[in-house]
Amino acid sequence: MDLFRAHVLVCCGTGCTSSSSPRIMEQFDQLLPQFGLDKEIKVVKTGCFGLCAEGPVVVIYPEGVMYYRVSPDDVKEIISEHLLKGRYVHRLMTMAVASGSAASGSFAAEDNSFFSKQLRIALRNCGVINPEKIEEYIAHDGYAALGSILTEKRDPFEIIQAIKASGLRGRGGGGFPTGNKWEFAAKVQNDTKYVCCNADEGDPGAFMDRSILEGDPHSVIEAMTIAGYCIGAHQGYVYVRAEYPIAVERLQIAINQAREYGLLGENIFDSGFDFDLDIRLGAGAFVCGEETALMRSIEGKRGNPTPRPPFPAVKGLFGKPTILNNVETYANIPVILRKGADWFASIGTEKSKGTKVFALGGKVNNVGLVEIPMGTTVREIVFDIGGGIPKNKAFKAVQTGGPSGGCIPASLLDTPIDYDNLIAVGSMMGSGGMIVMDEDTCMVDIAKFFLEFTVDESCGKCSPCRIGTKRMYEILSKITDGTGTMDDIKALEEVALALKNGSLCALGQTAANPILSTLHHFRDEYIEHVVDKKCRCHVCKGLTQYYIEPDLCKKCSLCAKKCPVGCISGVVGKETYVINPDACIKCGACMDACKFKAVVKK
Amino acid sequence: MGKTKMTPEEMSAKLDAVLATHKGEGQKALMSTLQQAQGIYGYLPLPVQKKVAEALDLSVAEVYGVISFYSFFSLKPKGETVFTVCLGTACYVKGAQALLEKIEESIGVSSGDVTKDGKYSISACRCVGACGLAPVILVNEDVYGRLTPEELPAIIAKYKEAD
Q1: Is the pTM of this model over 0.95?
Q2: Would the ipTM clear 0.95, i.e. be above it?
Q3: Domain B81-161's class?
């Protein structure tokens, strides 16, 4: 085996790939031989490091130096300075927006506040290994758990017991104990059973499942094979969103490699156990993240949910006993079995064990993927790991759980995150999207945004969801247009309750959560919209007026020329310009046109 | 998506080849067959639906039911150049709505529609997963991130010139 004195890790997750990391790889491959370094330096394509806002990210080991926002043109300098002469390229070591490494005077990735508060279990291999090489996964103890189970022919119920003891709960959002789910399916007698993986990450703003599939696909394959052994299944399906081409490609490469190595297919580890995996592509339906809908979709049907019971463990895919877990849940399994249930159960809070990956996004400096032990507070995530709010704006809320979740306001920033606490404050864990909102985000508008989503994505099968989401969206539109009344707020709450009690699946049952939680924590904003006809964030167009500050107006006439409806009057060089609010269509063209910032929203 | 260079005969031949591999597999092969068919035609017109239904031994109604359920399947052709604006939460909070409005204004059609000459279409999508680059738009398969409305005219002009 060749020995290299340094390793260059280039992030090739979706975020960094979009901002030209493949070209950075090409540059390294082209230039290293020119400097005569291609035998000493190894360039590795890895999955996501998590710090997506600062991408493309390049890390150089053994020093652990992290370079941010690298462009293909920077590669030559990194090679000639860092790799050849040992001098760091300092201009690429400062994060563009936040504190972190530069402030602490340290250059190592581990000392960066973004990473120091994290504990990476599910993401352990992301950004560390090349996901397209099975050897690298194996070198990081990959397939060791599966190997010991199959070669020792361990009792499936003993393994299930270990998973139960670890306290692992479903990471897709519901939080159902994983071990119990496996036990139900294992106890059902049937010759044909299935193992499924939910990678239909439809929650807008969540991308941890994608990152795991892109950065460490073998951990999911290993876990699904173990699940198959435990319940007595010989076929598995991974249901992936079609919107994730890189994840699909890498998972397919990983499945092919596992087959070549005899880790999938017939007689795995000479144990007589057969198991194989196939990918099924989704086609853009949010409801297919619901377990019964997902199985209908794998069967090639419309993704309509079906009533439970019967639960999938009894009657699932093609009518056979089936277990379905989320990508992140599976990624935890091999480590739990290797390091022991006690180790895993020692991390986290009383009822939520282990870690959770969050996709931190929105109005926060360090946008990216973070994995924290359960019990970490919202404040630590937003301010320590996330580096706070850009432009020194005030924090307003974080939204978790996507269209099924709710908002956590500033007063609850010190809530320790676990399944039960998030439900207690009116939100939910969800799959792990965490969107930060600042003072400029209108909470009524955000509720409307989520309702527009659920109206679109409701499958239409049951009427509470089909009709209820639409009515709630209409009421919210009335409120944001400035024609809402206090009765509308009452009606919202009534419809919300009907939805919660009457809907067939979780999509409808939770669709009102974004409204109920914003109504609970930000009722004053709703009342402002209805009574004072005012949107304090100037987001709701119906409640916003454009106005020209006479003191700032330079009488240049540019705004009047741009106005598509001719509602701005004045005289060039003589009279300040004035907008006629009755004729104004609130397009904002005058505001874009004014060079003196004289046009403001009121 | 994007420009299709195949002639109708070539497309038809390619579809026949795909259908031959799935012949008689029934409902469970429907999703992947439709995905491949859309990959060839760019959308799923009625004649294609009929051929798929026949090959898989399904009714056209069942095929149409699945197509109309999933947003990935399209019954209308897309433009040669497709502008897609991500309206996921992270992008929305960072002003994606303003980007969408600006693009609609400069192309002259609204989201979901194609220009009369078939050259441009606009669509909104739910989260491409590049939240670190929010707000994000895609032009065909090129990704543009961390955008402001002021940067859009230059991007749009680039694709108009390329014609």
Answers
A1: no
A2: no
A3: alpha beta
